Amino acid sequence: MVYHASGGAAVGRxxxxxSDTICAEATPPGQGGVAVVxxxxxxxxxxxxxxxxxxxxxxxxALRAFRGxxxxxxxxxxxxxxxxxxxxxxxxxxxxxxxxSPAAVAAILDALCAAGARRAGPGEFSERAFxxxxxxxxxxxxxxxxxxAETEGARRAALRSLEGAFGREVQAAADRLAELRALVxxxxxxxxxxxxxxxxxxxxxxxxxxVATVQDIRRRAEAGARLGEGLxxxxxxxxxxxxxxxxxALTGQDAAIVSAAPGTTRxxxxxxxxxxxxxxxxxxxxxxxDAGEQDEIEQEGARRARASAASAELLLVVVEAGQEPTEEQxxxxxxxxPRSAVLVYSKIDAHGGSPGWQQRSAWGPxxxxxxxxxxxxxxVEALRTGLDGLVTADVGEDAWAARQRHxxxxxxxxxxxxxxxxxAQEGAHEELIAEALRRAQEQLGEITGQVSHEALLDRIFxxxxxxx
Length: 468
Prior knowledge:
By secondary structure, this protein is an alpha/beta fold. 44% of the residues lie in helices and 19% in strands. It is built from 15 helices and 17 strands.
């Protein structure tokens, strides 16, 4: 089934999404000062009045008693009404703001269901907003991204998408493809018509222009997708090099056991942190040394350390000050390219050396260097600042909140545009060019929801929390 963002009733997840009235808690479950219960649908106002009494004027809060089906007083709080079509969902919507206890919320939801509502499924409020043309799919997904944002960079990227910047750029590219298709098809169908172009446009140049636009959209979308993913940072090095102490210093927590005895860390220790614009998972790994010096458990720890290094987006190779990287550590630095790596000289309090951060290293253009003492804290702030700048520079300042499905669709559009450009350069029949342009336009339409289907919408909105 095909949906269009212009609105209208549609079927999804086995129910008529817009013929009934739904309710759900919009605030996180658990105890709190206030809980918000949201109600939306054609009977929203009538149901709300049966529970909370007369509704106040539009967008004005009023104190009301909330009553169950038997008239029992279950809670009291504020009521706000948002008439269609000017609500989030485009339907009559009511918010009941009661006390934030699980029992009070359950009682309010039970009262609303007894009055004629049903409990909403995941993402149904945002899905109705999409179906009613209040937002496109990129904006709907940005709602989830904004709620999930761990960092300032992720918040800004989500807000850009929520305000429609991502969707507008994609739609503009799709509109340009529609114009090119119209030109090609006009020449095909009516070559002698006075309204048709005297000769086909320079399609290769026109398509190249759209390609450049879509490539820039993808760059910004890929940066936003990275913001939404956890940055994997692996700390590797020989035993007793100070990896665990460095992890604790960077996170401000005693997450890893620290001991002067080599081989204290036998497995990968994970700790959440924020680095620059991204949330990060810091991985403290077992020490790497010659296999002949390791017992069976150490060998397994070393294997896991190497696996963590191979999957890390950012690698911190920790070496005691006064020493140079071993052959294996040099290999790890080289294998990390073009991903970023930092060679960290540790324990400068014991071995000497000035703390600081260096943007250049003799070990490769993708490698930076730092000198720190986790014991005294010297150089730790410089390392943290350097890492923040390194990660933020990789992401950029103009990212949009995006998901893998957006990147896949953009890649599909670019592949079709490449076929169109090649066909134009080779002088192929215009029908082949027009068909490739159509497929590229369809790929872009799936991003915004101008072209979508039930399975796609189910996949998107079923991943939302209830109440979104």
